[in-house]
Amino acid sequence: MAKTILIVDDSASVRQVVKIALTGAGYDVIEGVDGKDALSKLTGQKVHLIISDVNMPNMDGITFVKEVKQLAAYKFTPVIMLTTESQEGKKQEGQAAGAKAWVVKPFQPAQMLAAVSKLILP
Fold this sequence. Notes:
By secondary structure, the chain is an alpha/beta fold. 42% of the residues lie in helices and 19% in strands. It has helices at 12-24, 35-41, 61-70, 88-97, 109-119, and strands at 4-8, 28-32, 49-52, 79-83, 101-104.
């Protein structure tokens, strides 16, 4: 059975690149356009991994991760932050919120898939 990954990014082109890489590797993909939209898509179904941007309108990625970690069904879902932010402070903020990995854009799909396969829940 395919594993499900939630992609959260306000850029449609980034979501598309990530989706193509993931579906090509055999994953199912759910898309969210920002943190609020993504939270509304987390309705109790099994999500094996979340990939989220940091800078988004309505709800940024760090706030989104904090909110996800409050939900019992997703408390242990691993999160990869996919972002243009490379500052140490932001990374620490992300880790404190519960992000397990930090991939900086522009990224190589292979690099992202390697992070995904390391973190994805069985």
